[in-house]
Structures are given as C-alpha cells and as structure tokens.
Amino acid sequence: MASTTEVAPIIVTALFGRQDTAFFDAMRREHFPPERNQLDSHLTLFHHLPPSGLDELKHRLNQETRGLPAPRARIGGLMSLGRG
Q1: Distance between CA 48 and CA 11 in Å, rounded?
Q2: Which sign, positive or negative, has the C-alpha torsion 47, 17, 67, 71?
Q3: Terminal Cα-to-Cα distance of the chain (whole angstroms)
Q4: pLDDT of residue 65
Q5: Which of 4, 21, 40, 68 is 20 to 30 Å from 13 at the Cα level?
Q6: Can you tell me the distance from the alpha carbon of 6 to that of 36, in angstroms, rounded to the nearest whole number?
Q7: What is the pLDDT of residue 1?
Q8: Is residue 57, in this structure, part of any structural domain at all?
Q9: Does residue 56 lie within any of the structural domains?
Q10: Closest by alpha carbon to 70, among 14, 31, 12?
Q11: Cα(50)–Cα(10) distance, rounded to whole angstroms?
C-alpha cells in the first residue's frame, strides 16, 4: 500500500500585544463556537500559500521585517470567515 503525504498550505499570521490579545480572545469566546475556537487571536496576513514557497517566504519576511518595530494598527471591525 502506497502512503501519501499531504503537505499543508502556508498561513502567515501576525500576533497582537498582550492587551490586544486579551481583548480579541474575549471577543472570540463571546462570538465563536467553542468547538472551533482552538487558537488564540491573530491576524491572518496570507492564507493558503503553496508549500513550495516556504523557503523564499521565510527569507523575504525575515529580510523585510528585520530590525523594524511592530507597526501601529487600528482594527476597524471583525469579520467572520464562515468556517473559522
């Protein structure tokens, strides 16, 4: 029997500071089904990138962000992605 190994797509996320994480985690607990709420709050930057680009992606993200402070951002609203 041949085995097949499926490689998962790449998802790039940004993390929040401690206070923002606490706020967004509370929002997730309030508005998201508990059985689907398996991750802490995060901001998805890129979703479903091809695994073949992992090495280049790591290199470029590191190159573009090295030595830079976290950007200031403002959240204007929350959006349901339907499936979590």
Answers
A1: 6
A2: positive
A3: 35
A4: 92
A5: 4
A6: 22
A7: 53
A8: yes
A9: yes
A10: 14
A11: 6
Yes or no: say if 64 and 56 are a contact pair by the CB < 8 Å rule: no
Q: Based on the structure, what is the number of domains in the chain?
A: 1
**Token pair for residue 72?**
């200031």
pLDDT at 82: 66
Length of the chain in terms of residues written: 84
Q: Which of 82, 67, 68 is nearest to 33 (CA)?
A: 82
* 77 found inside a domain: no
Query: What are the tokens at 78?
Result: 């929350």
- pLDDT by residue for the chain (84 residues), tens only, comes to 555 677 899 999 988 889 999 999 998 898 888 888 888 888 889 989 999 999 999 999 999 999 999 888 888 877 776 665
Domain that holds residue 37: 10-65
